[in-house]
Amino acid sequence: MKLKDLIKAPPADGYIKNSSILVTALFIVGGILYYPTDGYGTVIALVAALIVLFGQKLLISQINKDFADMYFAKQQYEATNNQDYLKFIVARAEQILADNKVLSNKGKTELIALIDYAKKELKIND
Question: Membrane spanning segments where (predicted)?
Fold first, then answer.
């Protein structure tokens, strides 16, 4: 992974909420803490900001992979009519909804649409 990829801002219409406000707040806290802590507070705030940015980058790459897997499973179901693909979509989407607290509205909407599609198809085939 290149440095340019790491510092590039995430797209505004992604599946994860943007953490720019939190990072900006940490920068401001770091600036405020510079004189009272002789710079140590600033270092801590900046390290925290880097951790947030790195965590967001990991979440974005994971959620993009998960959505790609679910859409691929949808394509495979349409090609083969194997219900295991639908079960995978439901299980994975429900797990993401339960575990991931920083999903954007777009992400939640697409997950709910995938769940509805899979459950509808499962009901039709039963």
Answer: 21-37, 43-60
* Listed residue (90, 78, 84) closest to 118, CA to CA: 90
Residues 60-98: pLDDT tens digits? Answer: 999 999 999 999 999 999 999 999 999 999 999 999 999
| pTM for the whole structure | 0.80
5: nearest Cα among 73, 49, 48, 58 = 58
C-beta of residue 90 within 8 angstroms of C-beta of residue 115? yes
Please compute, for residue 5, the number of CA atoms within 13 A of its CA located in the half-sphere on the CB side: 6
User: Using CA atoms, how far apart are residues 63 and 95, in angstroms rounded to an integer?
Assistant: 12
* Structure tokens that stand for 68 in this block: 């790609």
Answer for the pair 6, 57: CB distance below 8 angstroms, yes or no.
yes
Please report which residue ranges of the chain form alpha helices under DSSP H: 3-7, 20-33, 40-80, 83-99, 105-125
